[in-house]
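Batch manifest, entry 17 of 40.
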Amino acid sequence: MSRIELNPIGFVKKEDEFSKIIVYERYADALERIESYNCLIILYWLHRVDERDRCVLKIKPKFKDVPVLGIFATRFPARPNPIGLTTVELIKRDGNILIVRGLDAEDGTPVIDIKPFIPLFDSPNVDVKLPPWVLRHLKIHEKSKHEHSYDEILRRVEIVKRCDS
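Output type: structure tokens
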């Protein structure tokens, strides 16, 4: 297998309901005309996931009526390649700083890419099907988007199977 190398382009600075994405100066020119969009897709490295948790294969969320799930059937952060993805609202660009709303990343999180959200490419052209336990969870939280730290998320699941078990 060939080695994959990622180079962060910046990092997250959390501030209340907004976040700043501080893009390193060497990549500042890559932001040219980014403010033409109001929604962006942010890809980031879940840097708090340790090496052992990168081998999680199955989890059991600690909610009744939720079955054991393969890690690729979840948004759980501990995974072979802990890449996070969130679509955010771009509030403002100030040089190499993007002020965004809705970023689900912790303070200090390395940003690995930024892409404009384009509905034709980024929205499925089919009706989206979700399992019943996800629909129940969404209904409970429809009024408020909750953010949890990595440690809080780990406490909400039982790790059922790892690569080495």
